[in-house]
Each structure stands twice: as structure tokens, then as C-alpha cells.
Amino acid sequence: MTDTTVSALRPALDLRKRLPYVWDYDIDEAMFDAMLAGKLAWGRLDRDWAAVRLLEYAPYPEIVQKLGFKALVEGWPRWRSKVRSASTRRGLDFLADWLPRQHPELI
Question: Which among 4, 19, 28, 88 counts the fewest CB atoms within 10 Å?
């Protein structure tokens, strides 16, 4: 989808399905999921933005459910420098290193 498609979707936002980690944008869950899947971009709000937002604010089970281990391991080198929390970076550094070695079947 393009930026103009986003404008067309805005009146149809389902604010009941707003995710707590996008409190500062008029984005519902369907739009966020489309961004996370790389199917929607809205200016600088794209897949990388959505992934970093998810990694910074969502609980771990939701990160795994929405992003999946494969995308997390593959995208982590690109997203790492944008994650502000040192403890989150350490945890995801460990996961991105450990998972392919110990559980490659999950990737």
C-alpha cells in the first residue's frame, strides 16, 4: 500500500483495536500488522519502524506472535541500533545468537 492508500483507510480506523504501543499515532492493529508485514508504509512509518516499536514496547509473547523467530533473527542486526533499552538489546542479542545454534528448527 502507498501513502495515498493510508489516507483512504484512516476514516475506517477501528480505534477499539488500537495497540498500546502505538498510542501516539492514529494506527489500528490492522494497519500496524500491515506495516510489520512490509505491506504498508506511511512516510517514515514502515516495517523497520513497526518492528522497533514492537521490540521496544510489546511483551515478549506478543513479539514472537506478531514477528516470529525467523524475522526477528534476520532483522535484528538492522533494528538493533534503534532499540533504546540496553537490557532489551542484551536480551535480543542473546536470542538472535542462541536461537539459530540451539533451535534452528524454529527459524
Answer: 4
